[in-house]
Amino acid sequence: MTDSRSKTLRLHMPQWQGGNLSDYHLSSELLSWLLPPSDGPDETVPVPSPGGPGSLRMEDGILAKTALLEQVRSARRAIEKHRPDKILTIGGDCLVDLAPIAYLNKHYGRVGVLWIDAHPDVQTPKETPHAHAQVLGMLLGQGAATSRRKSKITSTPLW
Question: What's the half-sphere exposure (Cβ side, CA atoms, 13 Å) at 66?
Fold first, then answer.
């Protein structure tokens, strides 16, 4: 029997820039503190605190695109470092799900995702500058132009 504990990655990503709401950062920090420690690997994606230096800039119709790309790629590196079978994602806005879902889809060959949210996350920069509302579109290859370089959820690199 294999030890499944080491196959579950606890990924903390206190991202807030995708929705431009500092509450996402705080709630992510609180959840990370409240949840019991994991028996498997634990990674935290570096995300600057809200109100830190620099302002969020609009790039290609996406608010804070450079920072968000850096965070998604950092999450992808953390995931690939451990190559888990499961991922517990503790995060801020919806964009934190991009790297874990794309990885798990590639890992298993195909996954089903039940997405329950207050707004449709299949939008593009034409509809909203907030990347947290674009994550499903990106996973389906219908999001921002840079997400369409590869096909569907199996795309590598992400976004």
Answer: 6
Strand-strand pairing, 62-63 and 58-59: antiparallel
> How many other β-carbons are positioned within 10 Å of the β-carbon of residue 128?
17
DSSP string, 119-139: S-S---TTT-S-GGGSHHHHH
CA distance readout (Å), 147 to 13, 77, 79, 125: 20, 18, 19, 12
On the question of pLDDT at 153 being above 50, the answer is no
Residue 55 has what pLDDT? 67
- Long-range contacts of the stretch 142-146 (C-beta < 8 A, 24+): 144/60, 144/61, 144/62, 145/60, 146/60
The whole-angstrom separation of Cα 57 and Cα 83 is 33
What's the pLDDT score for residue 113?
Answer: 86
Domain ranges of the chain: 4-115
Residue 149 — pLDDT band, cuts 50, 70, 90? very low
Longest dimension (CA), the chain: 51
Could you tell me if 123 and 45 are in contact, meaning their C-beta atoms sit under 8 angstroms apart? no
